[in-house]
Design the sequence.
């Protein structure tokens, strides 16, 4: 049965413009005070948050260099086999060591005789009496001299250096580094004050997340001031839903979006042969923007209900224009997310579901005029 509507029901709902401004001032003051308390708490956990937000980037960078290790070895072994030389490892062995044990491979080159020379100088007693066989190609005879005629010591040294520096005289060695110990997988800072700015921003974000229930409560309290008494009960229903949608959007961005997006972007680096050394400030901007964008956009069902309640849209218009709405959702998702299809779909598909959920919400709680019609 529809609620009885008479003047007595709405006699306490009339507010002047000045009273609305006063309500807004009080709500904003309380919201800012709650935000300040949240930021103060964030200062105590800022270090932990900075380490937390680096985790997806570090994991994606580790995967990037693991893929690069296998690619580098595969190309090197093919060249080695084409030159008729033996390859000590197989591609399968390298893949197992990289993908299962998470080691990163780097191929470096040394000159064996130069290494032996350095070892003999460092440990002369241990290597006393051990000599390498002479190599005829180590010293080339200068042109213009008769065969068998010895060159002077300076010319011999020059020729020896030229042989040492030649590519054919170098021997490859494999350097294996655990992924977590490789310095390349950690974000870099290019200025002294940048880490402090990162910590400060991370603390502010923590404050926003921690204080979001209180801030949403103040927003809904201000909205409730302009509602009829029988409608104010919806505020207490919308508040937990609003907070839950915001936190769900932020969680989806952090848990499901970051790592696939980074793998997708790093795949282009690998295909183009470009190493990536992201700055922590650039990564933080990405981390801050995407979860907040997801959290705010997930308020769509409540926004739809609000617009329907004030008469801007109707349930019928939502149903008739759903194709246009889905198109707008995908366009906005492309604008609010990085330029990759993964993050676009991760935002657009849940928002599409939430759009239809908003229609169900409007049908479940229709306007009074709509119910009477």
Sequence:
């Amino acid at each position: 049965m529809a609620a009885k509507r008479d003047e007595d029901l709405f006699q306490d709902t009339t507010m002047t413009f000045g009273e609305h401004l006063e309500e807004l001032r009080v709500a904003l003051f309380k919201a800012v005070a709650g935000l300040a308390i949240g930021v103060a708490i964030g200062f105590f956990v800022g270090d932990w948050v900075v380490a937390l937000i680096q985790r997806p980037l570090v994991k994606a960078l580790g995967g990037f260099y693991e893929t690069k290790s296998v690619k580098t070895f595969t190309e090197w072994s093919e060249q080695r086999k084409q030159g008729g030389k033996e390859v000590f490892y197989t591609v399968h062995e390298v893949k197992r060591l990289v993908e299962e044990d998470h080691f990163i491979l780097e191929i470096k080159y040394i000159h064996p005789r130069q290494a032996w020379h350095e070892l003999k100088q460092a440990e002369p007693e241990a290597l006393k009496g051990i000599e390498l066989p002479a190599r005829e190609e180590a010293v080339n005879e200068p042109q213009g001299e008769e065969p068998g005629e010895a060159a002077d010591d300076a010319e011999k040294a020059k020729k020896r250096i030229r042989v040492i520096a030649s590519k054919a005289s170098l021997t490859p060695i494999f350097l294996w580094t655990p992924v977590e110990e490789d310095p390349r997988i950690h974000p870099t800072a290019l200025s002294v004050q940048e880490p402090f700015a990162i910590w400060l921003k991370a603390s502010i974000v923590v404050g926003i997340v921690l204080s979001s229930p209180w801030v949403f409560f103040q927003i809904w309290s201000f909205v409730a001031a302009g509602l009829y008494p029988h409608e104010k009960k919806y505020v207490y229903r919308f508040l937990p839903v609003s907070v839950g949608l915001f936190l769900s959007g932020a969680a989806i961005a952090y848990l499901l979006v970051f790592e696939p997006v980074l793998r997708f972007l790093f795949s282009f680096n690998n295909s183009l042969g470009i190493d990536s050394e992201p700055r922590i400030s650039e990564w933080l901007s990405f981390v801050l923007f995407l979860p907040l964008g997801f959290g705010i956009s997930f308020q769509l069902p409540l926004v739809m209900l609000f617009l329907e309640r004030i008469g801007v849209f109707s349930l019928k218009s939502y149903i008739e224009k759903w194709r246009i709405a889905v198109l707008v959702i995908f366009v906005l998702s492309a604008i609010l997310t990085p330029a990759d299809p993964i993050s676009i779909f991760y935002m657009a598909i849940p928002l599409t579901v939430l759009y239809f959920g908003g229609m169900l919400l409007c049908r479940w709680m229709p306007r009074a005029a709509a119910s009477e019609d």
